[in-house]
Structure formats: structure tokens, C-alpha cells
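hey m, so remember when u said the C-alpha cells were messed up on ur end? i reran from scratch. heres the input so u can diff it against urs
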Amino acid sequence: MAAGLAHEVKNPLSTMSVNLQLMAEDFSSPKTPVEERTLRRAKLLLGEVRRLDGIVNDFLELARGYEITLQSVDLGMVLNELVRLQEPECTQLGIAIGIDLDPEAQHVVADPKWLRVALLNLFVNARQALVDAGDDGPKSPRIDVTSRVRGGMVQIAVADNGPGIPAEKLEKIFMPFWSSKAQGTGLGLPMTRRIVEEFGGEVSVRSQATQGTRFLVTVPKTPRALPGGAAP
């Protein structure tokens, strides 16, 4: 039912997006103040429509589950690529990035596409926490990414030294649609948890006021670490 409703919402969003794009093209060279205002409003509305479409897409993924193909994934490559992609924006924001990877944790059993999505959600969450802290945040904001082997599992930590998450909010962060951010969808962390659980792993979080937040993703290192010893 939820997936069907989401599809019904996507249809008018698609129509609105197309028409707003056409309107923006019609006023792409404004000659009067009215035309300039119309172009700005069209672009603003187009941005909101795209944001809503993104929310609906995320909800659909969460509602219907993920098509997971378990395989051996080069974790080092995934994490280094993630850091390279995020580094330019973090540098502009004055956020340092540290990465410390255990050579023994080079490979994990996961789906490469969805592993990237899960880890990116955590990285964006850490970055946003530091940005939202503003002047009340740390003097030297940073995000640290680490990996370690624990038994037959690999632990991947994404930690920030931001203001931390209050205890009363920490209990809600994995609830769909709950968010403390004005523009947050409340779907990023529930998606991450669901994806990691599909791998046979788990996600935990530890946070302390003024000491930052640390998300820990635990995933199988080998097929034997999967429930029942199933091979991917």
C-alpha cells in the first residue's frame, strides 16, 4: 500500500517537474523584473519538487527492500573513494578528514552499491552535524573513518567531534521520518541500518555531549561469518 501511494505521488511530481523546467526555459533570458521573479520562483519550485522526488525514492527503497547481491567487496577502495569525493566540500567547510584502515579489513562480504550508500549516509550525517554546530562546534572539526577486524567481522567507524546527540534524541535516530534537521528526510539512518542488516551485519551508535558521535558498522569479513555460514 505504501509503495503504491508513493508511486501515485511520483506521477504529479513528474508532471510538475517537466512543466517547471519548460517555464524556466521560457524565462531563461528575463527582460523585466516580473520575468526575473518568475524565473527565480520556477527554479525554487523545481528544486523543491526534485527534493520531494528524492524523498519518495528513498521511501520506496525503504518500503520494498533492496536487491542485494552479496560478494567480496574491496572495502579499502570504497572508503578511499568516499573520502576523495567528500574531501573538496569538507575542505571548503574547514573540516579535516582522517582515515585509518586495517590491512586485515581490506575485503568484506556486502553489495558494493549499497555499501557505498550506507557509508555515504553516515559521512553526510557527520558532516552536517559539524556544520550545524556553527560557532558552538569544535575549533578543529574533523571526521575520522577507521576499519578494524573483530573475529570474523569487520567494523567500520565513522566518527565526528561535533556536539554529540542528546540522549532523548539518540533513541529516535533510526526511526523513519524522524529528523532533528530542518531539511532532513529522516530516512538516511534507517536506510543505512536496513542495508547493513541485509548484509548480515549491524549498526550501532555512541554519542556524548561535546565529545562527538561515532557510528559503528559491523559487516561479515568472509562468507562463513554470515548467519548459517551461507555463501554469497
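this time it looks ok to me. The chain has a mean pLDDT of 84. if urs says something different then somethings off w ur setup not the seq
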